């Protein structure tokens, strides 16, 4: 699927989404619409092959995930990203997935991105401003903050959907605490060997954890550990 489509940015982004649909990764109209609305090129590094199905470095030992991983996470969280719901994106990086969340939950919902690298948060705000999600940033339903995402973002908890964009050695308890009953958390877990875990919180507060697939993400660490050697 490593392919670079000719044509305008909008048509290339649409072609990327259509390819993900053909591969069966995008299965719903809502996820397709969100990824079509939020142009990946506005969030990818300048001069990069923005629509290639591969992760890309964005500086500060961080990456933007491959489109198929973004699509996978959006599909897993789709029922928890209905209009008016609250979503948290931990390790929000470029702001791309947070913008997709905002598109799905709409102006009555909340989409919160948290990253512990201030320069990435600053860049993500500029990226979102250029995108179709810009008005949602302006009206406050989408917000990007500097913080340690392992602690979540209590201000707008509880969340219907939580996504973590880096691999944790174990599932951080604050994220489970900030998950609404009926809510879902999608998080890569592991060190050398990593699995994408899906955590569903039941109405009684108990949680069920399932494994979706094997993955490879950068580690979810402290700011100091992430920047070591950078």
Which features would summarize this protein structure in a list?
single chain, 230 residues, alpha/beta, seven-stranded mixed beta sheet, 25% strand, disordered N terminus, methyltransferase
List strands and helices in order, with pairings.
Layout (H helix, E strand, L loop, with lengths): L8 H14 L6 H9 L18 E4 L2 E3 L2 H11 L8 E5 L5 H10 L4 E6 L2 H13 L3 H5 L3 E5 L12 E6 L8 H5 L1 E12 L3 E8 L5 E9 L7 H5 L3
Parallel strand pairs: 3-4, 3-6, 4-5, 6-7
Antiparallel strand pairs: 1-2, 7-8, 8-9
Concise account of the structure shown:
It contains eight helices and nine strands. With 230 residues, it is α/β, with parallel strands linked by helices. Helix 4 links the parallel strand 3 and strand 4.
Instruction: Give the number of DSSP strands.
Output: 9
Helix content: 25-40%
What coarse outline follows from CA principal-axis ratios?
A: globular
Biggest sheet overview: 7 strands, mixed
Low-confidence stretches: 1-6
Please give the alpha-carbon distance between the first and last residues: 31 Å
Instruction: List the strand order in the largest sheet.
Output: 5-4-3-6-7-8-9
Along the chain, the helix and strand elements come as HHEEHEHEHHEEHEEEH
Cα-atom Rg, whole angstroms? 16 Å
**Roughly what fraction of the amino acids lie in strands?**
25-35%
Look at the structure and give the mean pLDDT.
91
Number of helices: 8
Structural class: alpha/beta
Description:
The protein has 230 residues and is an alpha/beta fold. Helix content is 31%, strand content 25%. The protein is built from eight helices and nine strands. It has helices at 9-22, 29-37, 67-77, 96-105, 118-130, 134-138, 173-177, 223-227, and strands at 56-59, 62-64, 86-90, 110-115, 142-146, 159-164, 179-190, 194-201, 207-215. The protein has a seven-stranded mixed beta sheet. It has a two-stranded antiparallel ribbon with strand order 1-2. Strand 8 (194-201) and strand 9 (207-215) form a beta hairpin. The radius of gyration is 16 Å and the shape is globular. Keywords: Methyltransferase, S-adenosyl-L-methionine, Transferase. Belongs to the methyltransferase superfamily. L-isoaspartyl/D-aspartyl protein methyltransferase family. It holds the Pfam family PCMT. One of its GO terms (biological process) is protein repair.
């Amino acid at each position: 699927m490593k392919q670079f489509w000719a044509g305008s940015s909008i048509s290339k982004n649409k072609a990327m989404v259509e390819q993900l649909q053909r591969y069966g990764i995008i299965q719903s109209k809502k996820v397709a619409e969100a990824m079509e609305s939020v142009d990946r090129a506005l969030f990818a590094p300048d001069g990069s092959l923005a629509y290639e199905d591969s992760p890309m470095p964005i500086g500060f030992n961080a990456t933007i995930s491959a489109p198929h991983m973004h699509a996978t996470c959006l599909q897993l969280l789709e029922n928890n990203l209905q209009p008016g719901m609250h979503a948290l994106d931990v390790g929000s990086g470029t702001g791309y997935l947070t913008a997709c969340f905002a598109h799905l939950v709409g102006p009555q919902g909340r989409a919160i991105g948290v990253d512990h690298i201030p320069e990435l948060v600053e860049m993500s705000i500029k990226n979102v401003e250029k995108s179709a999600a810009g008005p949602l940033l302006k009206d406050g339903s989408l917000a990007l903050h500097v913080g340690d995402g392992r602690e979540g973002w209590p201000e707008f908890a509880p969340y219907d959907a939580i996504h973590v964009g880096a691999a944790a050695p174990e599932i951080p308890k604050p994220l489970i605490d900030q998950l609404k009953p009926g809510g879902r958390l999608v998080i890569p877990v592991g060190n050398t060997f990593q699995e994408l875990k899906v955590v569903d919180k039941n109405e009684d507060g108990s949680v069920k954890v399932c494994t979706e697939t094997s993955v490879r993400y950068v580690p979810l660490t402290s700011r100091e550990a992430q920047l070591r050697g950078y």
